[in-house]
Write a structure and sequence with these properties.
The complex is a heterodimer of chains A (171) and B (277). Chain A has 171 residues and is of the alpha/beta class. In chain A, a hairpin with a 2-residue loop joins strand 8 and strand 9. Helix content of chain B is 10%, strand content 38%. Chain B contains 3 helices and 12 strands. In chain B, helix 1 runs antiparallel to helix 2. Chain B is elongated, with a radius of gyration of 20 Å. Classes of the chains: A alpha/beta (171), B mainly beta (277). At the A-B interface, helix 2, strand 6, strand 8 and strand 9 of A face strand 5, strand 6 and strand 8 of B. Strand 6 of chain A pairs antiparallel with strand 8 of chain B, so a sheet runs across the interface.
Chain lengths: 171, 277
């Protein structure tokens, strides 16, 4: 299963090895990629466009060794720099039944991590969160919150102290 | 001279979501201010965009009846089916949403944001929104693609951005009946905002490698589905342009021309705000 996902061919390969371009291309292929892209990530053109998901991810890491990727147990594919704000420790969150947007802003205290929710389209408090979130890192908490919502991924862009988090569904 | 259109006082968003639309300045007043601050070229550009869909601005609120869509390509949706025709042998068509209206709310960006907010109303292809409300699996969503982003070094939302993940229903828990064929969504809002921390004039100074105007362009499609997997476009695309620029010069010796931030949703609304350092 893991191999099949990573060997998936990309009909629209990313134009450059930036994490944002790779994430968009993999999402277009139906892969649930969650990504943190730093504002200073390069955008030089590919020497040769990647043809598979794995090649696109490796191209990002090769172009900027700060990045790494991980296919999580929940089926999300995380692409992120390390170390980063995603390593911040967060306590257990009693989130079950609450709206996802308020859990992110209030319970997870995104603002305290220098992250602001950037979503133009919103509908109340968002989809209900399925279960409480165990203590862990900010990345594991985001994955826990997003994974139960079919097709949903998180995407963070910006710079330390001024990050912006957008939740989106993959097409 | 300053661009003062739609300058708004900041208030907590939570208190603003469901307020009635505020009174807007008339278009010619806004354009006069824009001309004073930005010059004729900016005014002509604005008029071109506002006239692109043949829309006119009302006295009290700008209300867009977003065009029916007849395209399909790379947007995760298909074209809306035709609902016209009434051949006697044809089975009755299932009601679908039509005539999406975008209405400016009283939301104000305050000191740390630029932009404006709209709420949504919709009608039914059958002539009665009861036919929409009787379909518990009918959902709608917004599909946004970003085609240009000169602010990507500070903010770079994914493209596409599709929200909300599970869509919004048409039933009484999500929408209120305004009249027999108009439904208003209770909590759905499109807040076309931009954080001021992502718009810094130093990023575009001489020698920075970046130049003004700085532009973020996106396109909004509105889609419905009855099964959560197949989505059909029923309104849009609308074009949203954010633009950070400096007023036309020349500046007086020792002075610089003022900068301003414009948010334009074609056929719906626009604001021009002074740069917020």
């Amino acid at each position: 299963m893991t191999s099949a996902l990573l060997d998936q061919r990309l009909e629209s390969p990313p134009l450059d090895p930036s994490p944002g371009a790779a994430a968009n291309a993999l999402r277009a292929a139906g892969i649930r990629v969650c990504c943190l892209e730093l504002g200073d990530s390069g955008s030089a053109p590919h020497s040769g466009p990647p043809s598979t998901a794995r090649e696109a991810l490796e191209a990002v890491v090769s172009a900027d060794p700060r990045y790494r990727w991980e296919l999580t147990e929940s089926g999300l594919l995380d692409l992120y720099p390390s170390p980063s704000v995603l390593d911040d420790e967060v306590p257990a969150l009693p989130a079950a039944g609450k709206g996802l947007w308020s859990v992110l802003e209030d319970d997870l205290d995104l603002g305290g991590h220098g992250i602001e929710l950037f979503m133009e389209f919103r509908d109340g408090d968002g989809p209900p969160v399925a279960s409480d979130v165990p203590a862990g890192t900010l990345r594991s908490a985001l994955d826990e919150l997003i994974a139960p919502t079919p097709g949903a991924v998180w995407h963070i862009s910006g710079n330390p102290g001024a990050f912006y988090l957008t939740i989106t569904a993959i097409a | 001279m300053e661009a003062r259109h739609d300058r708004q006082e900041g208030r907590p968003e939570e208190q603003q979501r469901d307020q009635e639309p505020r009174t807007e300045p008339r278009t010619h007043d806004r354009l006069m201010h824009l001309q004073q601050s930005a010059g004729n070229q900016a005014v002509c550009s604005m008029l071109d965009m506002l006239s692109a869909t043949g829309e006119e601005e009302g006295d009290s609120e700008f209300l867009d009846e977003t065009r029916q869509l007849s395209r399909n390509g790379g947007d995760g949706g298909t074209s809306a089916p035709s609902t016209s025709g009434s051949g006697s042998a044809a089975p009755p068509a299932t009601a679908v949403p039509v005539n999406l209206q975008q209405i400016v709310t009283s939301w104000a960006p305050g000191a740390t944001k630029y932009g404006f907010q709209v709420k949504f109303r919709v009608s039914s292809s059958s002539g009665s929104v009861a036919d929409l409300q009787s379909q518990p699996t009918l959902k709608w969503r917004e599909y946004v693609t970003y085609s240009r982003n000169d602010f990507s070094h500070r903010i770079n939302p994914p493209s596409p951005t599709i929200l909300p993940p599970a869509g919004i229903g048409f039933t009484a828990s999500d929408a209120t009946v305004i009249n027999a064929n108009t439904l208003e969504f209770t909590n759905a809002r499109d807040t076309h905002w931009m954080p001021t921390s992502a718009v810094r004039e130093a990023d575009f100074a001489t020698g920075s490698g970046r130049t003004l105007p700085a532009i973020m362009e996106s396109s909004q499609l509105y889609q419905f589905s009855t099964d959560g997997s197949t989505w059909t476009n029923f309104a849009g695309p609308t074009k949203l342009t954010r633009r950070f620029e400096e007023a036309a010069g020349p500046a007086m010796p020792g002075q610089t021309m003022p900068k301003y931030f414009t948010t334009i949703k074609e056929g719906v609304h626009f604001t021009v705000e002074d740069y917020k350092p």
